[in-house]
Amino acid sequence: MNEVILKLKNFSLSYKTRKGILEAVKNADFELKKGETLAIVGESGCGKSSLARGIMRLFPRNLEKVSGEIYLNGEEILSLDEESYRKNIRWSKISMVFQGAMNSLNPVLKVVYQVAEPLMVHMKIDKETAFKKAKEILSLVGISESFSERYPFELSGGMKQRVVIAMALITNPQIVILDEPTSALDIITQANIMNLLKLLKKEFNLSYIFITHDIATASELADRVAVMYAGEIVEISPAESFYYKPAHGYTMMLLNSVPTLKIDKKLRSIPGTPPSLISPPKACRFHPRCQFVMDICKIKEPPMFKKDEEHFAKCYIGESHE
Ligand SMILES: Nc1ncnc2c1ncn2[C@@H]1O[C@H](COP(=O)(O)OP(=O)(O)OP(=O)(O)O)[C@@H](O)[C@H]1O
Ligand SMILES: [Mg+2]
């Protein structure tokens, strides 16, 4: 699992807002390997969905600027013209389950039609073939033929989530971005969907970018974890190091705020509120909330330090920085 399928270099994205320019993603720099699940975790508003939609090149009207490079199988795709991107990349190579998608299924269209639609619209495949493929994929995600002829309101939350997963897979992509795919579901249904995602990954040889604010769900699926704070990726490491050897002050405090059954520990919440991305704190963006803050954190932006094999963090903790 060492072949790099997707690589982001200095990827940044900002929006125009009434209060000024909001930089939702700043200098994201990471790789996704073939067959890998990379989890992206971080609190609400830190830029996870902006990053995901940015990779899909689905920008809102108030986009101010997007910059950097995105390589898919070695080919730079951020500079491709929209026509080529739409024809050759979006959905066919990289697809996405949008945050809250299960609640935005079209209420007046049968499920099978909605799953077939990406094939008909993006791939220009005829209706009969698209419906046949839609039924196959629906059955694979656990929706029987009789349910595929129903309308979204007749399905449970878990079933609707299976439908939107089927929609993301029908175009046979190599990479699937899953934006909070289980957040709105009860815990048993969550577990079922996670198992389904694991199964599908094997079946279709997929690579996942799995976005969540829920650390427990990330642990289920992730090979590596990237932690995002205030628009920046501040730590990236193998999943095990993320849990047992966090290197960034934010990650440490994040893990301390999560209840665990086995370890008897005092839960601490993170004081303060997430910063404004219009005028974020200088130097380390987390310094005003960090319990480990040092003078340097307030003055100089930390570089991405190599903390261990495959483990990087933008944090001065444990570094000599005189
Ligand atoms: N179209 C937009 N115009 C202006 N600001 C936006 C736009 N979309 C998102 N934002 C802002 O960008 C920041 C990042 O938002 P984003 O939705 O990417 O965060 P997120 O990490 O996905 O949050 P959540 O966990 O709540 O889904 C937030 O401050 C948000 O308010
Ligand atoms: Mg989001």
Explain how this protein is built:
This protein is α/β, with parallel strands linked by helices. It is built from 11 helices and 12 strands. The chain has an 8-stranded mixed beta sheet, sandwiched between helices. A hairpin with a 2-residue loop joins strand 4 (63-72) and strand 5. Helix 3 (111-122) packs parallel to helix 6 (157-169) and helix 4 packs across helix 6. The longest helix has 18 residues, at 187-204. It is globular and about 65 Å long. The structure holds adenosine-5'-triphosphate (ATP) and magnesium ion. Residues 15, 17, 22, 24, 42, 44-50, 60, 62, 99, 213, 277 line the site of adenosine-5'-triphosphate. Adenosine-5'-triphosphate binds next to strand 1, strand 2 and helix 1.
Give the % helix: 25-40%
Q: What is the terminal-to-terminal distance?
A: 38 Å
Number of strands: 12
The biggest beta sheet, please?
8 strands, mixed
Rg computed from alpha carbons, rounded to a whole number of angstroms: 20 Å
- Specify the structural class: alpha/beta
Based on Cα principal axes, name the global outline.
globular
**Small molecules bound:** adenosine-5'-triphosphate, magnesium ion
Whole-number average pLDDT? Answer: 92
**Order of the strands making up the biggest sheet:** 6-7-8-3-9-10-12-11
Count of DSSP-assigned helices = 11
Unreliable runs = none
Approximately how much beta-strand content do the residues carry? Answer: 15-25%
Q: Give the H and E element order.
A: EEEHEEHEHHHHEHEHEEHHHEE
